[in-house]
Amino acid sequence: MDLRGILGLSDEVRNGYEKIRANFTIKGDAPEEKLRQIVEQSKARSAVFDIITNKTPIEIGINVG
Do 35 and 26 touch, CB atoms closer than 8 A? Predict the structure, then answer.
């Protein structure tokens, strides 16, 4: 994240993340391929991963009164 975007100091940078990277170390009794399958299944079922990787419509309402 570039604070110039968040603070409105520059129109040349995004007001958010440019990339999100995650690395995991997994240990278990299962074969490596099974452990990799578990990670892929977790990624496929993750609501957070889905929201981040797919465009999700956002509606913002304002009630003043």
Answer: yes
